[in-house]
Amino acid sequence: MPTADGRRRLALIATKGTLDWAYPPFILASAAGAMDWDVGVFFTFYGLPLLKKDLNPEVTPVGNPAMPMKMPFGSEKFQNINWPIPKVLSHNIPGFDSMATGLMKKMFKNKGVATIEELREICVETDVRLIACQMTMDVFGFSKEEFIDETEIAGAAAFLEYAADADVTLFV
Amino acid sequence: MSDLKIDKTLDCKGMLCPMPIVKTRKAMKGMEVGELLEMFSTDPGAMPDMNAWARQTKHELLEAQELEERLFRFVVKKTH
After folding, report:
1. A35–B43: do the CB atoms touch at under 8 Å?
2. Phi/psi of residue A96, each to 5°?
3. Are strands B71-77 and A151-154 parallel, antiparallel or unpaired?
4. Cys-Cys crosslink for B54: which of A135, B44, B46, B61, Cβ 3.0 to 4.6 Å?
5. Top-confidence residue, A96 or A167
6. Residue B42 falls inside a structural domain
7. pLDDT confidence tier of residue A169, bands split at 50, 70 and 90
């Protein structure tokens, strides 16, 4: 069944709140919004913090064995080196995650990738529905006041009803 | 380049996905129906993306050219 106004619909589920995994839902949602699609993103479990007013996602190389370790400065050749950092170091040095987060942000900025904050703002401007999962909010102790004003609160049934009329549904 | 009468020019050079289509949409918002927007991008993904964006939004992509390596020029007509 098409949406009431005949627009295409994208229904996303965002379950991960790290800097790297924050990108796919916000990029897809903002791109669909820019194409005048009707878009809704359901934030659940670790995706919930992406709705916080104070947005500060980090990335960790732990459990991310395919994550390239590259430097966002120096010559192009230097920047293309994938540093073979032993897991025993990346998993144990205090502050390694902060460093990896800083390097990833710098690399994205250098390459012309928008920040998560910018992409989320675009989602708001293009009327993307940002839906927080009530159940996970209760479990992890989030309150609506912590989230940006545009946040809607709903449960699985409400999202499924919305997703049932979607042309594209993705779980991230 | 062609001799189309351009009403507005948008520079998206240095930006990656999805910013060229996001900025294009935003620029179009402030324009009148029938006007032409010219957009420059260095993102190789902008070629397939602008084609898709135009099909989806039903605006008319009049020109899509690669001027040189990694430099693209698009002209879009606002249709609605």
Report:
1. no
2. -65, -35
3. unpaired
4. B61
5. A167
6. yes
7. very high
Work out the minimum CA distance from A94 to partner chain B, whole angstroms: 33
The minimum CA-CA distance between B76 and chain A, rounded to whole Å, is 14
User: pLDDT tens for residues A4-31?
Assistant: 788 999 999 999 999 999 999 999 999 9
In the predicted model, is pLDDT for residue A1 greater than 60?
no
- Spell out which residues of chain B touch residue A167, defining contact as CB-CB under 8 Å: none
Q: Which residues pair with A133 in a beta bridge?
A: A154
pLDDT at B1: 58
Handedness of CA A27, A30, A34, A38 (dihedral sign): positive
Structurally, chain B folds into a number of domains equal to 1
Of B19, B25, B49, the CB nearest to A114: B19
Top residue of A3, A26, A35 to mutate, by most chain B CBs within 10 Å, is A35
List the domain range (segments joined by +) for residue B47: 8-77
Q: Residue B6: helix, strand or coil by DSSP? A: coil
Per the structure block, which two tokens stand in for A164?
């049932």
